[in-house]
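Reminder: ligand-aware prediction takes two inputs, not one.
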Amino acid sequence: MAQSYVLNIGEVVLRPFDARNDTDDLARIIGQIWGGGNNALTESQYGLIGGKSWGHWQAKEIMSYLSAAQCSAYTAVEAGKIIGFCSYVLDRERLIGTVGYNGLAPEQQGRKLGSAMMDFVMRKFNEEGMLYAAVIVMNNPQHAPARRVYESHGFKTMVGLDYMFRKL
Ligand SMILES: CC(C)(COP(=O)(O)OP(=O)(O)OC[C@H]1O[C@@H](n2cnc3c(N)ncnc32)[C@H](O)[C@@H]1OP(=O)(O)O)[C@@H](O)C(=O)NCCC(=O)NCCS
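Here is what comes back for the chain with coenzyme A:
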């Protein structure tokens, strides 16, 4: 059975993501915190896309990533309540660990849990023999806490990326 990890903040534990049981809670959290993501940004400019709100599409994208065979995904739980998640993917040929989607319920942010989840991911990279680590993050203000967490874990910007969009 896969292991759980104690984060030493409150009673927070990271346990392996379980798509069947965790999806509803995580989708709700994603709909509260991903307002700076591409789905929310395009909706704010073009209105509803595909007849559903950005939270639906963002949760769908993230759940698909977390459920992929190559992804290691963990759900953060405190006192039986799902409060967030983190994830990563290992490239065992090039020994590059890539930090994946991570997030925390709004009321849980600012407790240094994001940083603690990143400590956990970096420890896994080391244990798995990775030599490099990568992450992609947007550069808008909503992603400033995430950028701060990555920078404080030693990541340096290699290049900026633009998300481009238009109506047809
Ligand atoms: C990214 C995220 C998980 C961080 O969680 P968290 O528990 O709040 O993070 P921490 O408390 O460990 O650290 C946040 C850091 O950002 C800093 N910060 C917070 N708001 C900030 C802002 N507006 N501008 C700059 N830095 C900011 C904090 O001071 C802290 O830095 P410090 O440790 O040097 O003091 C959380 O903000 C989140 O869920 N964001 C929405 C989803 C997201 O962007 N996910 C990552 C992209 S995949």
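The chain has one domain: 5-152. The helical segments are 19-33, 38-46, 54-67, 113-127, 144-152. We will return to this case in the review session.
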